[in-house]
Specification:
The protein has five helices and four strands; from the N terminus they run H-E-E-H-H-H-H-E-E. It has 154 residues and is mainly α.
C-alpha cells in the first residue's frame, strides 16, 4: 500500500498518508538529523561530513528544483529502496518515521524561500536567548524563560 511504498501503482504519490502535526515534524527533524544529515547535512544542502571522506559523488541538495518539485512519495521511496550509492533505510527507519522525515524535508525546502510575512510577526532572525546562568562548560547554561507579551498575558 501507499503508506509502505510511497507509490500509487508504479508512480510516486504526492500526498502525505496522514495529517502532519508539530510532533511529527519534530520527530522528522530528530530522525533526519540521525539518519540523513551525516550525508545531506542538517540544512539538507548535500554538504554533510560523510561525503568529504572520499565518496565519489556528493549527495544532492534537497533545495535543487528537481527535488523541490519531486512528489513526496518519491522521497519516501528513495529512503525505502535506496538510490545510487545511498543505501535503503527500510530496515532501520519505520514507515511512519520515514514519512515524518519527508514532512521535515518539505519544511526545510520551504524555509529556503520564507519571507518575513511567513514568520507571522516573529522577528527574523529571532533574538538570542537570555541566560540565568551561563554554564561553566561542565554544566549547561540555564535559559531565562520568555516573558509573556501583552497578547499572551490576556
Amino acid at each position: 500500500t501507499y503508506f509502505y511504498t510511497g507509490k500509487l501503482g508504479n508512480n510516486p504519490g504526492d500526498y502525505m498518508p496522514f495529517a502532519i502535526t508539530k510532533d511529527d515534524l519534530e520527530r522528522g527533524r530528530t530522525r533526519f538529523n540521525i539518519y540523513c544529515s551525516p550525508c545531506h547535512s542538517r540544512l539538507g544542502d548535500g554538504n554533510g561530513y560523510i561525503p568529504t571522506r572520499g565518496f565519489s559523488r556528493k549527495p544532492p541538495s534537497f533545495h535543487i528544483e528537481r527535488l523541490e518539485k519531486a512528489p513526496v512519495g518519491y522521497i519516501f521511496n528513495v529512503m525505502t529502496e535506496g538510490f545510487g550509492i545511498m543505501p535503503d533505510y527500510a530496515s532501520q527507519i519505520p514507515p511512519r518515521d520515514r514519512w515524518c522525515i519527508v514532512a521535515y524535508i518539505r519544511a526545510l525546502q520551504l524555509s529556503q524561500h520564507a519571507t518575513v510575512a511567513d514568520a507571522a510577526g516573529h522577528p527574523i532572525p529571532s533574538p538570542a536567548p537570555e541566560f540565568l546562568t551561563p554554564g561553566t562548560g561542565a554544566t549547561l547554561p540555564r535559559i531565562k524563560p520568555p516573558t509573556a507579551g501583552p497578547e499572551e498575558s490576556k
